[in-house]
Amino acid sequence: MGTGVRAVWRGILLPLFFAAATALFLPWSAEAAKSKPPENDGPPMRFVVVRSSAPGCEPFCPEWISAEGAITPATPAAFKKFLKKLGDKKLPVIVTSPGGRVEAALELGRMLRTRKLDIGVGLTRFVECAPDQKGCKLDPARKGIYQGALYSAGAYCASACSMMFAGGVRRHVGQWAYMGVHQVTSHVTQQKITYRETYKVVKGKRKTVSRKVVRRKTVGSYTTTKMGKAFNARMLTYLKEMGVKKEMYEVGQSTPAAEMRQLAPVEMLNMNLITSLDATDVLVSVENCRTAAPAANCVLAPGKKLASNSYPKPLVPKGPGMWLAVVRSVGACEPDCPEWISAEGQVDETAPQRLETLLKELGDIKLPLIISSSEGDPIAAMLMGRVVRANGLDVAVGRTFFAGCKPNGKGCTGWQGDGRPYLGIAGSGGAECGESCLLVLSAGKTRLIGEGILAGWGASPALDAPIRNHYLVQMGVGPKVADATPGFDKLDDAALALLREGYLTTRSGSTQLLIDSGLCRMSPRPVNCRALR
Asked: Can you give the pTM of this predicted structure?
């Protein structure tokens, strides 16, 4: 019995059977996708690097990627190759395109988001010659970088381009450029495919070994705007991934393919398609290169150096102690922003000398001192206070929150050795002011401390009362003010009133009275509002 079964098994397993079959591939199949719809969108998209030709920007000018033309199946590969050649440069993309292939547009959008690139709708007007101009030859020293200017009027991003556009991090269109959407159109080619299949039968079941196409025949083609559930889901997933609302896709799908719906700026903002109402110019403005924190697309010309501003290096002690660093307000205050000296940490014996050194390097520039310190050497604090008084500095208790790393941070590159200051904001939150800090504060021309700050002389002040009171009197502060705040606690309205009565503070308010960016728009401007050279 067993031998007979084995014989039958061998007889079924060894023979190979061949069969011919036909299949009709429908929309979005692998075979149908190989057929191309009529190419009527114009020249394919090309990518080039452009450097601003704006007068006076050299040697530190903004650069961008000019992307103009139709999105074809080959465009993503071309863009990938272009970005690889670009290296670490992070340049915004300025696009004008009639649209093209949706799948390719989604791929481009994802590439933009992966590289964290900004995008704007705009046209590049080239100086000297354009990339597609006959006989255009760039000087080899330019390394393939063209010169040009950005124009919004006449620029457009239509159809599939809107999907590519959604991939940018910051996205700008502006009122003079055009953003248009309509229904997605699918071009379908039907083919009859004959193939040869090799299979084997194992235990009565047919198992395919190979399949080979032997003939293809086109049997028809058509265009449709009816998209299946899977396609619609894929589009909505992409937009959600990019942070754009589904209303954008719905508006497009409700617009006939033969028409184009122009999206208004406010409409695009509500859809999250654009990130602000600012025009594309904000991505390539020369002003972006004249701030303390130049934009990533500001590039120094080869062999050139930036003119140094007169900012001293941060002074940080080798061991525990107080850092002293010049900080410039970060935000929309350029070109004139408030600056201050951040003083944080334990008041150590070298702090007075380091402050004096910093002030000498600043010269006639008088910046307020923003201090936060819970402890320290009171004798050093009085010496530091005398430096403050001699230079007529304003003092406020507050903490500086740096945009990046702190002056004493490991590998901190906030001060880059080229004369630029640290960037940050300052406020009362988290600030502390112990005995040494209060002694420095009392020397200020203007003296400010806000509500909620942890402050006080401490239950057992480190400095003898007669010495402390003699110093306070010299600074114009009533000696009894130390007795009014013996503990170290959060200051409330009552405690602040006692400090004002004793002249430890000169007025109500906190750090913002000295460093708010709005002060730089007043006339006359405070002395700590500075314009970068």
From this structure: 0.58
